[in-house]
């Protein structure tokens, strides 16, 4: 398996996976909107995307967004998206993507990686095995603009 750092010229490779990821979260398929979204993120230098390839076939991806901590005065990444094609799950693809993201973060000298997941997501075991710590001290709130 190869992990590739996605560039704007690689968007078409990750696009079907990104659309499938959104459909997993009950969004309608919209390849064109996904293409525009990803192009804009790359154009504005707002994203880092890693793509897992098995025999040159895209089988998973993760997407990071840069943010900052005012308290520690350090940048960190939000690991916002992680998706593995169903037939490649439990084969080390997600683990390889997470490890790659951690290595990238270390090389950048960033504070770390944050992620959030559903309470029933079985990937929690993987996150914890790879040294992500569950935050038991804070609640997370979200205001939705209607």
Automatic annotation (TrEMBL):
<dbReference type="GO" id="GO:0016747">
    <property type="term" value="F:acyltransferase activity, transferring groups other than amino-acyl groups"/>
</dbReference>
<feature type="domain" description="N-acetyltransferase">
    <location>
        <begin position="1"/>
        <end position="146"/>
    </location>
</feature>
<dbReference type="InterPro" id="IPR000182">
    <property type="entry name" value="GNAT_dom"/>
</dbReference>
<dbReference type="InterPro" id="IPR050832">
    <property type="entry name" value="Bact_Acetyltransf"/>
</dbReference>
<keyword id="KW-0012">Acyltransferase</keyword>
<dbReference type="InterPro" id="IPR016181">
    <property type="entry name" value="Acyl_CoA_acyltransferase"/>
</dbReference>
<dbReference type="Pfam" id="PF00583">
    <property type="entry name" value="Acetyltransf_1"/>
</dbReference>
<keyword id="KW-0808">Transferase</keyword>
<protein>
    <submittedName>
        <fullName>Acetyltransferase</fullName>
    </submittedName>
</protein>
